[in-house]
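Today's session is about reading a structure prediction critically. Students often jump straight to the picture, but the first step is always the sequence itself: look for stretches that repeat, for charged clusters, for runs of hydrophobic residues. Only then move on to the predicted structure, which in these notes is written as discrete structure tokens rather than atom positions. Here is the chain we will use throughout the hour.
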Amino acid sequence: RVVVQELWSVDLLQLALLPTASAIDLERADVRGFIDEVVARHSLDAGHLGMHHQRVELLERGDFLALLDEYARDAAGGDSRVVLIAGEAGVGKTALVEEVERRTPEARWLWGACDGALTPQPLAPLVDVADQLGGEIAEACRFDELPRGTLFRLLRDELNAVETLTILVFEDVHWADEASLDLIQFLSRRVRDCSV
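Below is the predicted structure for this chain, in token form.
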């Protein structure tokens, strides 16, 4: 567990293609430095949105899967957390999360991705998730009329509105714009209040 600026805690799973892939590498850093460090060390896969990956057998990922399964059970019981999964491109970060999704069918899964364009869409992961949720948050994102803090609170309220375990996945965080990093920080500070 990593405590970031003593405001929120993060669990970092460092995936590797090395024989020591089952080791969990936890580090300390401040919020911006932490995100920047994770970003500098990895490039996330193509993304889950709109893509269906062929299921592959995960090798040397048993410890990671067990830990993520434990985290999902903890979250379902009210002990939520933020987990960052880091690793080189192609190491299987998305495949790992998709396997957890397959193993946790009772959960509501929401997927968002940061935009790798030269001019990224602000809050792209929020817009992706809002489209999946529909309702007030989707309308608010569509018309971009509300202040950022209000959008963040609408998402938090939507996450709190159901008692079902919700697993919120943001991919390609290394491409996150400042507003998306603010969203991650906002949710991370309040994640203990949700079954996320």
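Discussion point for the tutorial: Residues 1-8, 17-53 have pLDDT under 50 and may be disordered.
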